[in-house]
Structures are given as structure tokens and as C-alpha cells.
């Protein structure tokens, strides 16, 4: 059974046909081989078991490399390797099956050559399959002693037994998303599957290898299989490959249609010439001219600090596992909000860093003596370089994906290597996949004068913060944005969601003139921002601001806001890692009252759910969170969240509102509950408020509700009996009325709050409130659109709340209007057939085409 091979250094010991019952038994058996040969002392066996308890030694493709702890190396007498062949396989870790147990006893670096050969061997799946069942020890010896063949020594590429010829009909070729589906299907099959294009062959279970084929539309390939159930495997992979064709073609048609729409005129600035146009969704208005800068990470110098392979391997494994968890969470969140198609890119990125070739290359570099961070970074750069060198723009984008996830892993290996955003000193239009709200809030408006993202929606937190900062922004521009070259001259229209590339001199001059007129108008509006929004015939509309914290109040008041029409309290929960206490919330609400000095403050209670999730609240995962437990539904089910918030609000009212303060719409503090659909919900919430008010001996506060679902709008007259006011959330009302997820980038252009159906629901709400003398506000997106604000006033809305920077323009538009004309305009708008027809009713601004 034992076959010492004295000619090798280190010693190589082989046992064929082993059948250990457990992983522990396999490690002990391999250790006994090393003990019997004199390579290790008996205590090293326990050290090998301890090592397996702290790190998984599975190398890949059925090969494991158990070894001892670094501190126990003194128990190694002589370098050696013991190979335990387990034809039936042994469960190793999380579903991994080991067939070759290669136990390592390393006294010095004499085992490095063998390890390098091992990492090369796991790429040869056919040979590994043969080694699992061979009865000739010489084959295992040869596999672990042969050097790599010289470049070009391999013969011509061949196909496996079962084969299928196919011509790629994906319009954009084989990119990451379909390739990841190929890999997923292939890995579910026991047979070996390969894809050949000309002389190039790729393992169908290896994502990077597939992408390196560089398959374009029209390329001929041969897909072949061999091994267990090879015919069934070929049938499954071929069904997967051809089944994607219709979707890929539909996606290409949609992209072409979007490009055609992008080339059409818009209700804003239009070029006279024909620059290249990329269309997205307008997220923050304004026209800006600057070179583009595609967001990359600043170059990080990765030091090469060698360390033992054992500890380096442990750190790499932990970093890969942590990054895989991050990507899984991103994919799950994206699938929940946007669907499987958009989540596919994150799953594909997960496949990239799980790629055997990539991990093998990193291991080889570590075996050669490089540090783990340096080895990983070099492996990523080499693989990404190969993809970039193929000359395919789609694959170049995949190289960018690989570098991006590679940086994630690098930051896990060594947090000091966490990359930083590298921005030019000169003003630019920043291009990015997406930005976290914290990233957007930290942008310097003097350097980033425009923002265009591939992902996101117009009501995302990033879009809201861009409007707050006054940065023109476009979202949902698609992945083509990320392939643009830095320093390309561009014009960004954040109002229409258009990015014009390489504009002519005439178009640049026209855009500058347009921008100058817009700035002049904005400056004139700003000079009168403190005046009330009173129409020419004397009708006044209250104007508030949407804010998240007391620090934002001074800006809102300076911009002309007359109070806060919406304080989003969920940010108290979103911006920290734990749940704020009653005292934490009390301090914030009291600071808000002090900052407003008696002006109205409307606080919306916790609105968690839908697109806003908070990990520390431990909410159950829902298939459709927008239709689940969110807003008031959550509060009524979670007294631990509702009670502290209501107590903090009533305490702030008791301590911060002087006697004789105004009531009604002018009250210094009002409470508003989100996601209301029925009278019983309102009655239950009012009962809780009355109890807490009495317990704290606090003043009574106006209690209102959000009108966000059609049911509430339709039943507004019944709800108004039990409420002091309504506030309409037009973003959610649009979403629910039109059955369009407001975060869905494909449908976002159709989720227009000026759709006649939404306007009719707003009119019904105002009519129902009027029957009981209640006032109605709007705190959704169209409140900050001057044309939309006029329609809302005409529909009967009394108060508008918006991003502070929108206040001056809305006030100016209302001051030049007459309420009678606005009511007539609103009636005409409700009678239109679609949102485009409603928007066509707008009177063009100066400089716009009629």
C-alpha cells in the first residue's frame, strides 16, 4: 500500500484506493503515512487537525492539502508529501468532495515545486479525473513531478466525445451575464464540458476562460462533453446556450430603441449638430459642460511582504469568503428591487473571483514566495490584462469588473489597501456605476460639476442628494457609460437625462448660451426666494423643504423654505449601525424644533421597507417588500420601534413648544404616518398617540397620514374624518398606481408622476379632504418641478415640500400664475391620455423650443 519514492525531494508517499469514513480519518491516515516514513513526529498529526479547524485546505477540483500549524513546524523531521487517493470521495467542507488528499510536511521550502505543480494540475480536470481511480502509483508520481510543457508544445485543440456546433447569435457576443449562466449550468453536470473556438479551448465551468475566448456575434463554436451522463450534459448546456438567444436579442433591440429615442429632440436644450448621445433618466436639473471622468480607484501600491503559505492561504480564503458574502448581499438586494436580470452582474462578479484559474495563479505566486496581497493583485491584473487585450469592448468592461471585485478582496486582505476615489483637480462630469449616498454627499461641487451613473433611479437617495447639492445628474445610463474614455468633452443635461459626447464648437457655444440664460433666470428667482408663493390673484401655497437632520435646516431656510414639510426619520436608522434610543431621537427632534424657531415641522414616522432596509432591525426577507410590511404596518407590528419614536416626539413637543403656539397647518410640530391603507390603521395609531401624550402630559399634536397608495386616495373622504391633514407621496403613489417599481431602471422612464391616472388620484384626495376641512400637502418629486407644482396647486393642494434648491424656482412659477388658470390647466391635464400629453401642456421656458 505504501510506495515511498526516495528519488524525490521532498519524499512522496502514495496510498491508493483509500476509503476513510470522515475528513478527520483521512487526515489521520495521511499523517500516519508521514509518521511511518519518519517525516513527522506524532504530535504533528494533531497539529494538522487543528489547522483544518481554523482554515479550509481545499485547493480545488477534488484536491486538498492538509498541513500543520506554523508553530508546530518543529515536529517536522524531513520534508514529505503523503497522497491519499480516495476514489469514492470524502466530504470536506460545505459540499466540497476530496479525491486526492495531499498532506504536506514542510521543513523548509523544498515542497514549493510540488505545490506549484499541484496548482497547475487542478486546471487539468481530465487528468485529475483519471488520477482519482488509477491503479498505477506511477501516474500520480508523474503528475506531481512533471514540469510544465514549454509554450506552444500542446497539440491542436480537440473536441470531446459528444459535440454540438453553434454560431453565436447574441448581438453583443458572449459577455459576463450569459457566460455566468453557461458556467452555472455546466457546473451542475458531472461530465466535463468544453467550448472551442478555432484552436482556442475553454472549460465551460470556468468563467474567465470562457470570456477569454472573446466570442462575438457570428463566431462558430463547438461545445462538447465527455464523462458521466455526457449526452445529458450536452443537452442541458446546449439548451442553456440557445435559450438565452431570444433574451439577448430583445435586450439589443431595447438598447437600439433607447439609442433612437436618445437621438430625438427633448424639451430642453437640443444640439444643432449630431453628437453621440447617451440617454438615461434626468435626476437633477441643470446643463453642464466639462470633460468626463470615469470613476476609478486611485492606484494603490501593494507591498510584497512574504509570509508562510499556510497563513497567506488562510487570509486569502477568508478575504474571498467575505467578498463573496458582500456580492451575494448586493445581488440579493438588487434582485429584490430590480429583478434577476440586473442582479446577474453581481452574481457574475462573484463567479469572477471564484474562478479556479485566478485563485490558482494567486497560489502559484504565493508558492514562489510573494506575499498574499501582492500575489492576489498580480493575479487579478494579469487576468484583467488578458481580457483587455482581446480588443472587445464588452470584455474590456469585464476586465473592469474583475479589477473592481479584485479591489474588494484586496481591501479584505489588508484594510490599509482600501482604495480611494481618484478625482482630477479640474472640474469634470463624473461617470460611475452608482454611488452610495455617503459618496454623493462627499462630492466637491467645485470639482464634480455633473454626475452620470450607469445604475440607479430618479428617486434614489443618490439622486436626491445630487439635487440637494445642486449637481446636474443623470441616472440609469447603462453600462455603455463605463466604457467611455476619460477626458472626452461632453455636455450633460440633468433635466432631460442626456449626455452629449464630443459636441461641435457650435453646439458648445449654443449650450453655453443656454446655460447662461438659465443661470440668469435662477439668480433672479433666488433674489426673490424669501417672498411667499402667492399667485397674481392672491392664492397662497405654503412652501416647505424635505430634510433629514437639523444641520440641513439653515440651508433650507436660506433657500426660501417656510418650514420643513417632511423630515425623513428613517435616516436616523439608516446612517448608523444600531437602533437609535428614545433619548437619541429626542435630541434630534428637539434640535429640529430649535433650528426652526417656531416654523412648521412635519415629522414622518419611521418609513422602513420597500427600497429602504436596515440590517440591525432584523426584518424578515420578503418576496416583494414594496407590498409587504413597511411604514405604519411595521410600526403597528413592532412596538419596540413605535413607542420610543412617539415618546421622543411628544417629549420634544412638551419641552420645546411654548404655550400659545399656532395650531393646524402652522403648528410647530406635526406627526405624519406613512403607508396608510385603512381607517382601522389610523384609529390604532391615534390611540397610541393619545395614550403616550397623556402619560407624558404633552400638548396635542396634529396627526396626519401619507397618501401613497390608490386605496388611500380613493377613500380619502373616509380617512379625512380621523386625520388632521394629508401629505401625498407622489413617488410611491405613482409606483403603486402604475405598478412600476420606482427603482427599476428599465421602466423608470414610464414611472412619470404626471401620468393622468396619478393626477386624478391626487384630485380625489384633495376633494375628500375638502369635505372635512382638512389641508393637503405634497412631499413627492413633482412638488419641486415648477410645472408640476402649478398642476398640484390647480388640483387643490395647499402645501408643497421639496428639495431646498427647488424652492426658488417653484415660488417664482407660482407667483406669475393665476389660480383660476392653474385649475383649468389641471383639469385639462387630468383629461389627457398619457404623461407625455400632460407634459406637452407646459409653456416652454425662455430658450426652449415651442
- Average predicted confidence as pLDDT: 83
Q: Percent helix among the residues?
A: 40-55%
Number of DSSP helical runs: 31
Poorly predicted runs are 1-9, 148-156, 845-850
Shape: elongated
- How much beta, percentage-wise? 15-25%
Would you tell me the structural class of the helices and strands? alpha/beta
Strand adjacency order, main sheet: 10-17-16-12-13-14-15-11
User: Total number of β-strand segments?
Assistant: 26
Distance between the termini: 91 Å
Radius of gyration: 32 Å
Report the biggest beta sheet as strand number plus sense, adding barrel if it closes. Answer: 8 strands, mixed
Structure characterization notes:
It contains 31 helices and 26 strands. An eight-stranded mixed beta sheet has the order 10-17-16-12-13-14-15-11. It has an eight-stranded parallel β-barrel with strand order 19-20-21-22-23-24-25-26, surrounded by five helices. Helix 10 (309-338) packs antiparallel against helix 11 and helix 12 crosses helix 13. The protein starts with 10 loop residues before the first strand and ends in an 11-residue tail after the last helix. Residues 1-9, 148-156 and 845-850 have low confidence and may be disordered.
List keywords for this structure.
850 residues; alpha/beta; 31 helices; disordered N terminus
